[in-house]
């Protein structure tokens, strides 16, 4: 294994020469493949009943499992297209799992693309509150939007901004913030050898400056009493303990919190800070030679309360609701009669022929670069309404009046995902027609329009199943 000499030296001083040998040995072991169940769509118990593959629990993550990536291909199964799980390296499941989220929270994921953590944060909101998922890279933010839509998360903002630009809009707005920072990726050397070359171009020093700026910007958007989780997939103290140390120095109202432990977790290294601080032992380091996952660092922090106890949780600021003032277009209200879920009409916003269902209590976002605000319900076309793929993924089967439910081994499922027209003469009568929600084993995949026992395919073309 050809590791940069400077990296080797630092790892030896971090681990000691003997343990460093254990670390090197794990480069010869196979990588781990992980799958995280989308609990917004299916419980872990139900998923285990229908899982097409043997799964082994990731012991420190409630909804995380190992699978055999050499023989199983969960990304090529209809359940993946139904958004029932996310494929994620097991250690990378830790940050979102250890940030406590309650339905109704306002949550910000500052560096969110492609959505490995944001999808879990969104699932735990259970449709209440708001998830703002941001990523500086607008091309990566497109993938983030797709993953959030696939997961069925509708109470979202997908933003693409430099975090400092967001401060005036969201000062002390969020209850929870996750910063999965851009980093030198040392923890991924074992899984992805390309990271070694990247490290040689931009190492810890480069990323540490960026991280300090991101954490201090994010700190200003957290409300007093709120919680922040900082994570990286690297080992270097400059990017881990020292970034946390910097935040604590700049914002003394923050303090480190204990998080739920696991026997393989190592405490953060107090001496790795510029001024050693025992509180840093509350942070967690994950080493690939100590447990079945790649290298990570996770720190959970709380923003101090202000003033006396009665002000501990200042009232949540509310904003004037932007309302669509005119009555809803008839074609939209007709379509919404098929949706069996209480919708608040004042949350429907129509912009440029597109209808959205907006999260509550948003600040005015004019001037922010975004890819999505709210759940895209669909498009108003000439005298008709076309529901969106995002809406199909956000609905549960029982929340739509007309459904076609196919079993995963019915060949029509893959044909539907490929964009083909389906013959449904065995399932529906001649007189049935209109919008149908197509499901696999009870989990929505997308819409189709039925007429004469034939289903016209309305699956989003950009998401179609590609033949290999
Ligand atoms: C470690 S990755 C995030 C992975 C993501 N949390 C996940 O679990 O899928 C870091 C991300 O930070 C983004 N990024 C880099 N600089 C940034 C900045 N200043 N503000 C926000 N995002 C930034 C990168 O585009 C990259 O997508």
UniProtKB/TrEMBL annotation:
* SUPFAM superfamilies referenced in this protein's UniProt entry, alphabetically: S-adenosyl-L-methionine-dependent methyltransferases
Task: Give the SAM-dependent MTase RsmB/NOP-type domain ranges.
Answer: 23-304
Query: Could you tell me the Gene Ontology terms of the biological process aspect for this record?
Result: methylation
According to the lineage, what is the superkingdom?
A: Bacteria
Xref: Pfam families: Methyltr_RsmB-F, Methyltr_RsmF_N, Methyltranf_PUA, RsmF_methylt_CI
Q: Name one GO molecular function term.
A: methyltransferase activity
Indicate which residues the UniProt annotation says bind S-adenosyl-L-methionine.
111-117, 135, 180
- Write down the CDD domains for this protein, in alphabetical order: AdoMet_MTases (cd02440), RsmF_methylt_CTD1 (cd21147)
Active site positions: 233 (nucleophile)
What are the entry keywords? Cytoplasm, Methyltransferase, RNA-binding, S-adenosyl-L-methionine, Transferase
Family assignment?
Answer: Belongs to the class I-like SAM-binding methyltransferase superfamily. RsmB/NOP family.
- The identity of this protein, by name, is RsmF rRNA methyltransferase first C-terminal domain-containing protein
Organism of origin is Ruminococcus turbiniformis
């Amino acid at each position: 294994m050809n590791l940069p000499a400077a990296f080797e030296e630092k790892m030896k001083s971090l681990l000691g020469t003997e343990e460093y040998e254990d670390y090197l040995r794990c480069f010869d072991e196979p990588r781990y493949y992980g799958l995280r169940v989308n609990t917004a769509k299916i419980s872990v118990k139900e998923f285990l009943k229908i899982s097409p593959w043997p799964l082994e629990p990731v012991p420190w993550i409630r909804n995380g499992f190992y699978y055999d990536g050499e023989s199983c291909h969960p990304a090529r199964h209809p359940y993946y297209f139904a958004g029932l799980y996310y494929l994620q390296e097991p250690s990378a499941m830790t940050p979102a799992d250890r940030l406590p989220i309650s339905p109704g929270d306002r949550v910000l994921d500052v560096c969110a693309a492609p959505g490995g953590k944001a999808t879990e944060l969104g699932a735990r909101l259970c449709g209440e509150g708001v998830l703002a998922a941001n990523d500086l890279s607008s091309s990566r933010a497109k993938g983030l939007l797709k993953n959030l839509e696939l997961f069925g998360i509708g109470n979202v903002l997908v933003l693409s901004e430099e975090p400092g630009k967001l401060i005036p809009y969201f000062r002390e707005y969020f209850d929870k913030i996750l910063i999965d920072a851009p980093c030198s990726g040392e923890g991924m050397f074992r899984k992805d050898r390309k990271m070694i070359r990247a490290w040689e171009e931009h190492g810890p020093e480069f990323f540490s400056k960026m991280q300090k700026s991101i954490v201090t910007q994010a700190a200003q958007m957290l409300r007093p009493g709120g919680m922040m989780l900082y994570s990286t997939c690297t080992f270097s103290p400059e990017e881990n303990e020292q970034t946390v140390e910097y935040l604590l120095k700049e914002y003394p109202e923050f303090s480190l919190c204990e998080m739920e432990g696991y026997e393989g977790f190592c405490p953060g290294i107090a001496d790795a800070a510029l001024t050693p601080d025992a509180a840093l032992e509350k942070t967690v380091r994950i080493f690939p030679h100590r447990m079945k996952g790649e290298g990570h660092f996770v720190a959970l922090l709380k923003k101090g309360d202000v003033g006396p106890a009665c002000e501990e949780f200042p009232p949540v600021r509310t904003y004037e609701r932007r309302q669509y003032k005119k009555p809803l277009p008839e074609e939209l209200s007709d379509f919404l009669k098929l949706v069996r879920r209480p919708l608040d009409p004042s949350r429907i916003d129509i912009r440029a022929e597109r209808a959205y269902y907006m999260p509550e209590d948003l600040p005015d976002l004019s001037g922010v670069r975004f890819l999505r605000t709210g759940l895209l319900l669909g498009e108003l076309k000439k005298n008709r309404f076309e529901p969106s793929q995002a809406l199909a993924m956000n609905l549960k089967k029982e929340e739509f009046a007309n459904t076609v439910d196919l079993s995963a081994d019915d060949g029509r499922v893959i044909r539907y995902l490929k964009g083909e027209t389906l013959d449904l003469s065995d399932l529906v009568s001649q007189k049935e027609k209109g919008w149908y929600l197509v499901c696999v084993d009870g989990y929505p995949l997308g819409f189709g329009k039925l007429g004469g026992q034939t289903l016209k395919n309305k699956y989003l073309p950009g998401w179609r199943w590609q033949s290999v």
